[in-house]
Write a structure and sequence with these properties.
182 residues; alpha+beta; Arc Repressor Mutant, subunit A; 5-stranded mixed sheet; 5 strands; elongated; binds FE2/S2 (inorganic) cluster; 2 iron, 2 sulfur cluster binding; metal ion binding; iron-sulfur
Length: 182
């Protein structure tokens, strides 16, 4: 582990959680959850450390980290915009919303803008199909969007500046596009 990571105050939360769960391998999701919250994403170094401490294969850590929607392996932007591309949303033009946002912000879905302001991503069904097409902006769900309304809301969000960090109340959510168990 690098000295930079070891001396990072955010790392304390990860260490505390490892201890709290007595380094049990079945605490993997809880530990990754805390690491994600503390750092905003799971770096290779962090995952390697967790794998060593819990004595689980690194492949297992990567498997869990890529299986759940909550986890990210890349640094995230100040703001997040997630567009649902599940069937109900797609038939109501969510594909056009994605294209519009990609064009407006100059970024492909799944990536962060060059200035680090916005991460644009897609997800397969958020379970709010009655509100289709659904867009989630910094964790706030907005329904019945159009390309215009989604673009306006995303611009408004970015113009607001850095959001307050909110506690995460939810457990990690499975990525809809994957099947099976990690
Ligand atoms: S398909 Fe978008 S919320 Fe279900």
């Amino acid at each position: 582990m690098s000295p930079a990571l070891a001396s990072d105050p955010r790392f304390t939360a990860v260490e505390r959680t490892l201890k709290q769960y007595q380094y049990r391998p079945d605490a993997l999701i809880e530990v990754l959850h805390v690491a994600q919250e503390a750092f905003g994403y799971l770096s290779d170094e962090l995952m390697d450390h967790v794998a060593r401490q819990l004595k689980v294969p690194l492949s297992r850590v990567y498997g869990v980290a890529t299986f759940y929607h909550f986890f990210s392996l890349e640094p995230q932007g100040e703001h997040s915009c997630v567009v649902c591309t599940g069937t109900a949303c797609y038939v109501k033009r969510s594909g056009e919303i994605v294209k519009r946002l990609e064009g407006e912000f100059g970024v492909k879905a799944g990536n962060t803008t060059a200035d680090g302001k916005l991460t644009l991503s897609t997800v397969r069904c958020l379970g709010s199909c009655g509100l289709a097409p659904v867009v989630v902006l910094d964790g706030e769900i907005a329904g019945r969007n159009t390309p215009d309304s989604a673009a306006a809301a995303a611009h408004h969000l970015v113009a607001e500046g850095k959001p307050e960090k909110k506690p995460v109340a939810e457990r990690p959510r499975r990525r809809g596009r994957r099947g099976g168990t990690p």
